[in-house]
Write a structure and sequence with these properties.
- The chain is globular.
- Helix 3 crosses helix 4 and helix 10 crosses helix 13.
- By secondary structure, the chain is of the alpha/beta class.
- The chain folds into two domains: 224 residues, 3-Layer(aba) Sandwich (Rossmann fold); 111 residues, Dehydroquinate synthase-like - alpha domain (Dehydroquinate synthase-like, alpha domain), CATH 1.20.1090.
- The protein contains 14 helices and eleven strands.
- Strand 5, helix 4 and strand 6 form a beta-alpha-beta unit.
- The termini are far apart.
Length: 353
C-alpha cells in the first residue's frame, strides 16, 4: 500500500496540508489540526451510511447536515445550513467539515466563511473532481440562476483529507467526470500527467489504490502550485478556468440539473482547442479528443443556441471589460486571450455544438 502523500498549500497567513491516501477517514482526528469543542459535518446525501458512521467514530460526537446535487449550491440551502449551525450552537472556535463532492465542499466552505464571520473548516472530498480540484484552494461559493459561483468567498480550509477508498463505490460516470479536471491540469501545466492518465487507464477504472493515489496526487499538485502562486486569482490562477467559460454557461442554462460539471468542462476544453486553432495558436484538437474519449468524456454536444450561451458567459466572473478565454499556446503553456472575434467564437462553437 502506497504511503499517504502530503502536499502543502502555501497561502498568506500560513499553510495547510492536503493528504491523499487510502484509509484516511479512520485517521481523520489525527489529521485535522483543531481543538474545537464542536464539529459540524455537512455531508453529501448519497454517501453510504457506513461512511458517515466511520467519520463519526473517527471524530467522536458530531452532528450531520445532508445536501444533494448541484442545486444544493443555492441561497436557500446556504440559509438552511446557517440556521442549522446556529441551532447546533456552533461558535467561532468550532469546526465545519465538508464531506462529499465539490458541491458539498463548496457549500460547507461558504457556510463556514460566512457563519459567525468565519469559522474553521476542513474538506474531506469523496469524488475525483473534488480531490483533484474543488476542495483545494479556498474558493467557496454558491450558484445563482444567472450564473455559477457568483456568490462566494475565499476561505481556506485547515486541511484537505482525500481518502481514495471513497472512490471505490462511485459509479463509473461519476468517477470519470472528475477526471476531466485532472486532464485539464495536464493540458495547462503537466503534460506528463496526460501520459500517466493514458498509461494508467485500466488501473484507474478498476480503482487500483496505488494508481489512484499517484494520479490524484499529481493532478492535485498542479492546483496546489497555482494556488500558492496566486491565492485570490489575480493572475495565473485564471489558467485553472481552462474549459470553464463554456462549461459554466452550459450548467447555468441547464439550471444546474443537466450535464455534470466534468462533462461540461470536457466540452469546454474541446471548444477552447477549436478556438485556439481558429486563432492560429496551433491545432491540438486531436490531443484533446484522444485524452477525453479514453475516459468516455464528451467532445461535443453543447446543444444550446450560441447567442444564449454568449449571453450567459458574459455574466460569468471571467468577464472583465470583455470576455477572457484561457487558451493553450502549447501543452502546458496556457494564456489568457481577450478581444476574440465573434466569427472565431461561433466557428469554434459549431465544432462542439
Amino acid at each position: 500500500m502506497t504511503e499517504p502523500r502530503r502536499l502543502d498549500v502555501d497561502v498568506p497567513g500560513g499553510s495547510y496540508p492536503v493528504w491523499i491516501g487510502a484509509g484516511l477517514l479512520e485517521r481523520a482526528r489525527d489529521l485535522i489540526p483543531t481543538d474545537a469543542e464542536r464539529v459540524a459535518v455537512i455531508a453529501e446525501e448519497h454517501l453510504e451510511g457506513e461512511r458517515i458512521e466511520g467519520l463519526r467514530r473517527a471524530l467522536g460526537s458530531t452532528s450531520v447536515f445532508r445536501v444533494t446535487g448541484e442545486v444544493s449550491k443555492s441561497p436557500p440551502m446556504a440559509e438552511r445550513a446557517w440556521r442549522w449551525l446556529a441551532t447546533e450552537g456552533l461558535h467561532r472556535g468550532d469546526l465545519v467539515i465538508g464531506f462529499g463532492g465539490g458541491v458539498t465542499t463548496d457549500l460547507a466552505g461558504f457556510a463556514a466563511a460566512t457563519y459567525n464571520r468565519g469559522v474553521d473548516w476542513v474538506a474531506i472530498p469523496t469524488t475525483t473532481l473534488a480531490m483533484v480540484d474543488a476542495s483545494i484552494g479556498g474558493k467557496t461559493g454558491i450558484d445563482l440562476p444567472e450564473g455559477k459561483n457568483l456568490v462566494g468567498a475565499f476561505h481556506h480550509p485547515r486541511a484537505v483529507i482525500a481518502d481514495v477508498s471513497t472512490l471505490t463505490t462511485l459509479p463509473d460516470d461519476v468517477f470519470t467526470t472528475g477526471l476531466a479536471e485532472a486532464i485539464k491540469h495536464g493540458f495547462i501545466a503537466d503534460p506528463g500527467l496526460l501520459d500517466d492518465l493514458a498509461s494508467g487507464h485500466d488501473r484507474l477504472m478498476s480503482r487500483h489504490s496505488d494508481t489512484l493515489i499517484e494520479v490524484i496526487a499529481r493532478a492535485a499538485a498542479v492546483k496546489v502550485a497555482v494556488v500558492g502562486e496566486d491565492p485570490t486569482e489575480q493572475g495565473v490562477r485564471a489558467h485553472l478556468n481552462y474549459g470553464h467559460t463554456l462549461a459554466h454557461a452550459i450548467e447555468a442554462i441547464e439550471g444546474y440539473e443537466g450535464r455534470t460539471h466534468g462533462r461540461a468542462v470536457a466540452i469546454g476544453m474541446m471548444f477552447a482547442a477549436h478556438l485556439a486553432d481558429q486563432l492560429g495558436m496551433g491545432d491540438r484538437v486531436l490531443q484533446h479528443r484522444t485524452a477525453l474519449e479514453a475516459f468516455g468524456l464528451p467532445i461535443a454536444g453543447a446543444r444550446h443556441d450560441f447567442d444564449a450561451i454568449a449571453g450567459t458567459w458574459q455574466r460569468d466572473k471571467k468577464y472583465e471589460r470583455g470576455m477572457r478565454f484561457v487558451l493553450l499556446e502549447d501543452i502546458g503553456k496556457p494564456a489568457v486571450v481577450r478581444d476574440v472575434p465573434d466569427a472565431a467564437l461561433r466557428k469554434a462553437y459549431e465544432a462542439v455544438a
